[in-house]
Amino acid sequence: xxxxxxxxxxxxxxxxxxxxxxxxxxxxxxxxxxxxxxxxxxxxxxxxxxxxxxxxxxxxxxxxxxxxxxxxxxxxxxxxxxxxxxxxxxxxxxxxxxxxxxxxxxxxxxxxxxxxxxxxxxxxxxxxxxxxxxxxxxxxxxxxxxxxxxxxxxxxxxxxxxxxxxxxxxxxxxxxxxxxxxxxxxxxxxxxxxxxxxxxxxxxxxxxxxxxxxxxxxxxxxxxxxxxxxxxxxxxxxxxxxxxxxxxxxxxxxxxxxxxxxxxxxxxxxxxxxxxxxxxxxxxxxxxxxxxxxxxxxxxxxxxxxxxxxxxxxxxxxxxxxxxxxxxxxxxxxxxxxxxxxxxxxxxxxxxxxxxxxxxxxxxxxxxxxxxxxxxxxxxxxxxxxxxxxxxxxxxxxxxxxxxxxxxxxxxxxxxxxxxxxxxxxxxxxxxxxxxxxxxxxxxxxxxx
Length: 449
Ligand code: GCO
Fold this sequence. Notes:
The protein is an alpha/beta fold. It is built from 15 helices and 15 strands. β11, α14 and β12 (394-400) form a beta-alpha-beta unit. The protein binds D-gluconic acid. D-gluconic acid binds next to loops.
């Protein structure tokens, strides 16, 4: 048995739009994901988060599942449009009251609430005013953070400002795969959106510290370990460019207070719209960094690629892939943690998301066996335990996710949960991986294979 340290935190992660449903209940305003998912052609089979896992109504049942699992923490996001339906102006008390009940029910179950303020569901009214392209959004976000942390700051001891600035900027404004679905190939919009997300983060940190003085504050990042497709000079240079961009661009502003100098010239007039004082604010010291790890990036040189990096992702023929077509590569978690610890020396790290999509189907007795997910989790936990044994300050692990849920543009076609959701009945069926994770938590350790 590979033991984790005493006090290691075992959790599960989810996000508001992916599980709550109830999109028009109790005064919730429209979000950009409501608008995007209801736009024909944007999501698989036209799926939306209108109902999702109906968690808004069923949260007490889901918290019972968490308690039976033995969870010590639950990472969820708050829907800005429930709190401020227009993103600003009057507070929607019924929306705030929902999260009050959620937090109280979690605390009564002995489960620590880890809150992310923003997991992609921007109030549509703010997007109509420019959204993340409008620098004023940073003040709107700071106000939202103030309203929420004044109400919950006595019980929430872990706050993350944003989930994955990379996806907000790149998928929302460059590839258009996610809301608000812009496809600006000059990269100017992606860089402006990214910079304003960072600015909003920098403005919210002191607000959270003031309203929730006993809490720890951080951000959730998806940073990838990057490997060259071949040992050729061109591919090694491509991997370096990709790594400096992805890690540098999507992590260093908040971890070091600066964009990587070698990448800045790539963008010319499309560079982030910096103003004096921005980077000092953005680089405010954090108590933890949340890392969402799923897989690595294998990169080759591609002179024909559309983006300034001139790189392309490569499949590894000898590797196994998940239902998302992501390579299963546990060693990447060790390499990522080693790099983050060496380069940025974070006080604390949480694995804020780790898991896999598999084509789960109930058997004739209604049970869901997911041995490949068990194997995925076991392999990554084994690597994690070994990294912690090397004194890398990982304090907790959050499986993505407790429930199968709305996987953004993939709709409900990808199942990441350790609990199966029958969306026609909303029945929850714990999978084999739920029992596996229950045993890991109970033992605070994982069997070595
Ligand atoms: C992300 C998001 C989650 C996803 C999960 C599976 O990392 O993309 O945080 O909302 O659903 O990662 O893709």
